[in-house]
């Protein structure tokens, strides 16, 4: 099958979600009905750097590449819009594997109310997936940035931490005695993260002052918030909410469980700051979006 034939087969599998895309994949460019404010981010996954095909299926790679990009939109408090995907396929990867990868992206796009509106396919020395995503908001004031944290505020995080890092250790061959359900959940957390789009919008509406997705690990990402806001952020490691199974995996690897949870990254939870008087409404907003909040730190003068 030629490159053009593969592109046509991919185009046949893509669907428009919502009414914003007027003309999608198949022309020289997509035509999109714009909202008031565009929120744009780009992410890339490269074989041997971000994943190994010995531990990740093509579907895992496609899902994770789109999820990581959409997580940036979630961290801004925007709605998902369109995705544009560049695929670099190495010799021997195969047409069916490429379709499996795209099908996983399309499935996630549909659940996220995003449309894969265009892209490109090329030969490459290693598999890579580059994803540019556009999100939308009604005004700049609806969005949340990394800057905005103020002294006296509190620090919160959604969900649980450490699951992705523990899952990676298991995929790399670490032997740990875990219930099958826990093992599978940790591995899935690494291979198939979920972008918290609804939670991001809910937290923005509830009044968080600064926000970032936890992609590099909470220790690093808290530093990003502090630097951009010009403040100091203290995170109490003892209060990190651990994913079930993380403690056992960390101990088997000879690591402190909370150090693993704070540094491993790829959990794609949302870390944020907020005025202390807003805690109740923020917790309620997160619950309505299917998440929960743990308060684990404070903001001080930088």
- CATH topology of the largest domain: the name is Phosphoribosyl-aminoimidazole Synthetase, Chain A, domain 2
- Please state the average pLDDT score: 96
The SSE string, one letter per element, is: HEEEHEHEEEHHHEHEHHEHE
What structural category characterises the helix and strand content? alpha+beta
The strand line-up of the biggest sheet is 8-10-7-11-9
Strand coverage percent: 15-25%
Count of discrete alpha- or pi-helical segments spanning 4 or more residues = 10
Describe the structure.
The structure is a single chain. The chain has about 300 residues and is an alpha+beta fold. Helices cover about 40% and strands about 25% of the residues. The chain is built from ten helices and eleven strands. Helix 3 (about 95-110) links the parallel strand 4 (about 80-90) and strand 5 (about 115-125). The model has no long low-confidence stretch (mean pLDDT about 95).
């Amino acid at each position: 099958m030629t490159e053009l034939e593969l592109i046509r087969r991919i185009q046949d599998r893509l669907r428009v979600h919502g009414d914003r895309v007027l003309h999608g994949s198949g022309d020289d460019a997509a035509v999109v009905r714009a909202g008031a404010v565009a929120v744009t981010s780009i992410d890339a996954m490269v074989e041997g750097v971000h994943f190994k095909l010995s531990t990740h299926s093509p579907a895992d790679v496609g899902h994770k590449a789109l999820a990581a990009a959409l997580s940036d939109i979630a961290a801004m408090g925007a709605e998902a819009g369109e995705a544009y995907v560049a695929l670099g396929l190495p010799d021997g990867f195969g047409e069916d594997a490429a379709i499996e990868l795209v099908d996983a992206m399309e499935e996630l796009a549909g659940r996220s109310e995003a449309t894969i509106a265009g892209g490109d396919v090329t030969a490459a020395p290693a598999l890579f997936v580059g994803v540019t995503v556009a999100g939308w908001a009604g005004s700049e004031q609806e969005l949340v940035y990394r800057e905005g944290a103020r002294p006296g505020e509190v620090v919160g995080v959604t969900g649980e931490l450490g699951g992705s890092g523990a899952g990676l250790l298991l995929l790399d061959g670490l032997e740990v005695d875990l219930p099958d359900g826990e093992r599978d959940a940790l591995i899935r957390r690494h291979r198939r993260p979920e972008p918290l789009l609804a939670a991001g919008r809910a937290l923005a509406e509830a009044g968080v002052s600064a926000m970032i997705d936890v992609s590099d690990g909470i220790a690093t990402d808290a530093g990003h918030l502090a630097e951009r806001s010009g403040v100091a952020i203290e995170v109490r490691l003892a209060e990190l909410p651990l994913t079930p199974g993380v403690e056992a995996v960390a101990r088997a690897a000879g690591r402190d469980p909370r150090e693993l949870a704070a540094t491993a990254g790829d959990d794609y939870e949302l870390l944020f700051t907020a005025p202390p008087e807003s805690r109740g409404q923020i917790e309620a907003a997160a619950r309505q979006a299917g998440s929960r909040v743990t308060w684990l730190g404070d903001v001080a003068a930088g």
